[in-house]
Structure formats: C-alpha cells, structure tokens
C-alpha cells in the first residue's frame, strides 16, 4: 500500500509538527509506503493534490486540521486522473471536525493510520459552492455573518490560543448588527433578518460545536442553521447550547435541510468555508451526493 500525504506542519499553531515522528512510526509499523509532502503555504496542498497521478497511490491523506483538508479536497476535485482513490485524514489540527464525523478522535494518530490501512471507506457528500464567479468545494461547513466575524478576529488573535474565539465572541456581540438576507433552498424563497447562517455537511464545526446535530455526511442534504434577529443576551445565552446541539430548539433558530441553496445579502458578506476565510455573497451551494470516498473508523456505519 502506498499513500500520498499532505502534511501541514503549521496546523494547530504549529503543534502538528510534533506528531510527525509518531506518524512515520505508525506508517512503518503498519507497512504503509508513503510520499510525504510538507506544505510551505496554503496553496501547496491544492496544487500538489491536483497535479498528482492517482495511478501511483492507493489513497490521498490530509494531515492537519479542517483547513488543510479543505485544500486537499479542492485539489482532489480538480484532479484529472481517471482513477479515483479514497481520501484519509490524520487529525492533528485544531478542530478536526470532519475527522470526528468519521469516528476519528483528535490527535489519535494510530487509529487514523489504522483506518487507512484497513481500507474501510464511506462515500460522503460534498458541498460545491460558487462565489465571485469561481467554484470551490467544502465537506464540513460554510458560514457567514457573526460566525465569520468571530473567526476573522480569532485568526488575528491566534497567539492567545483558545481564548481568541472567546475574545472574538465578546467583541462582536457588543457590536452585533443583524442583516437582511434572501435565502432560496430547493426553490423555496425566504426573507429573513439574521445574525448568522451556517450550512453544514457534518454535525460538528470547530473543536466542540455541535452546530448541526441532525446532519449526515452521506444523505444528499445540507443542513442550514439560521440565527434570526435576537438580542445580545439571547445570542450569548444560546452559544453554550451549541456544545450539545440544544440551540436548534431555540425559537430564534431555524433549521432547514436542502440540496440546492442560494444566499443573497444587501452588501457582500465574507465566507468561512471549512474554517478558511475568503469569498463573499452572493453565494450558491449544491450538494453533490456521495461524491468522495473516505477512510473511516471501523465502528462507523
């Protein structure tokens, strides 16, 4: 067995680098041959996977977090190889939300390598989105509004670690300003005033946020979570509920499942696809049903 590994040494504020020796040892123990490419910048993963000859490998593996996986998936989806091979993930990033939906625990290198070696796979959905006239793909979540504002602030304050998101939440709650949106899902048009919108393929986002508790990665549907106009206290009170998924029972939260989605705002809103920060509304999203094959933990059905 031979795999191509895209390893992001800079994931989790450079903490992923300390796992490389353990990872190599696991590969050796399980007799897996590999080409390991260490990314130098955010575009390396895309270009490397896009130009790879899949005939040379049995799997492509993303070692990093959800952002690294986002880049690998986009490279994969634009690769012209006739042969299609499974994707695997080594969860050494900050959030590792997608890995969690594949039954893989954060930083459990041995289990993740075993999942690749065993070869048990699952065909999963992919979200294809168009922004500013260009197409991209996501497999975890894409958001806009309050959630994106918080992510942008946290990114600038990443030297504070986990506190960066707390600071971001408090800061943007003070300056909370809901905005009007037109959302079309499977031909149904709705007008809302919202604080944020998240469109999920997976149940989790980030490290512990159960944003879409009813989402399934292979059902052909994306789960939309709308936080409608609410007070600052209501928003702050609702945030802890996301850890258990109880926020979906709040009257201010609307949950929708759809295959095709279009979002229009009066002024452009920045997007956060799989934790990355780029693109803007207007936004169109299509769910591509069971497009990718992923290596998963044996306990996942």
Structural class: alpha+beta
What characteristic shape results from the CA principal axes?
globular
Q: How many structural domains are formed by the residues?
A: 2
Query: What gyration radius follows from the Cα positions, in whole Å?
Result: 19 Å
Whole-number average pLDDT? Answer: 90
Number of strands: 14
Topology, element by element:
Blueprint: E1 2-7, H1 20-29, E2 33-38, H2 44-51, E3 59-64, H3 66-77, E4 87-91, H4 97-101, H5 109-118, E5 121-131, E6 134-138, E7 141-145, H6 146-156, H7 163-174, E8 179-185, E9 188-200, E10 222-228, H8 232-238, E11 253-258, E12 260-265, E13 271-273, E14 283-295
Parallel strand pairs: 1-2, 1-3, 3-4
Antiparallel strand pairs: 5-6, 5-14, 7-9, 7-13, 8-9, 8-12, 9-10, 10-11, 12-14
What attributes characterize this protein structure?
Rossmann fold; 2 domains; Tumour Suppressor Smad4; 301 residues
Brief description of this entry?
The protein has helices at 20-29, 44-51, 66-77, 97-101, 109-118, 146-156, 163-174, 232-238; strands spanning 2-7, 33-38, 59-64, 87-91, 121-131, 134-138, 141-145, 179-185, 188-200, 222-228, 253-258, 260-265, 271-273, 283-295. With 301 residues, the protein is α+β, with helices and mostly antiparallel strands.
């Amino acid at each position: 067995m031979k795999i191509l590994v895209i390893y992001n040494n800079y994931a989790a504020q450079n903490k992923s680098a300390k796992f490389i020796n353990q990872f190599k040892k696991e590969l050796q123990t399980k007799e897996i041959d590999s080409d390991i490419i260490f990314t130098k910048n955010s575009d390396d993963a895309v270009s490397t996977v896009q130009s790879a000859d899949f005939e040379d490998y049995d799997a492509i593996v993303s070692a990093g977090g959800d952002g690294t996986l986002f880049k690998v998936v986009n490279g994969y989806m634009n690769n012209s190889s006739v042969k299609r091979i499974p994707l695997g993930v080594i969860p050494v990033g900050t959030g590792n939300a997608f890995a969690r939906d594949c039954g893989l625990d954060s930083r459990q290198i041995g289990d993740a390598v075993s999942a690749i070696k065993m070869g048990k796979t699952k065909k999963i959905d992919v979200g294809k989105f168009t922004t500013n006239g260009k197409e991209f793909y996501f497999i975890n979540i894409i958001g806009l509004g309050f959630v994106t504002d918080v992510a942008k602030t946290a990114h600038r304050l990443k030297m504070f670690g986990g506190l960066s998101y707390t600071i971001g939440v408090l800061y943007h709650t003070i300056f909370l300003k809901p905005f009007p949106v037109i959302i079309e899902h499977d031909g149904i048009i709705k007008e809302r005033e919202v604080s944020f919108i998240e469109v999920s393929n997976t149940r989790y986002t980030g490290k512990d946020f159960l944003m879409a508790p009813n989402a399934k990665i292979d059902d052909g549907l994306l789960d939309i979570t709308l936080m409608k106009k609410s007070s600052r206290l209501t928003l702050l009170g609702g945030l802890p509920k996301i850890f258990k998924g109880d926020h979906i029972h709040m009257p201010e939260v609307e949950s929708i499942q759809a295959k095709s989605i279009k979002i229009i705002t009066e002024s452009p809103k920045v997007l956060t696809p799989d934790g990355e920060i780029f693109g803007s509304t207007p936004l169109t999203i299509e769910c591509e049903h069971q497009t990718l094959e992923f290596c998963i933990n044996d306990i996942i059905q």
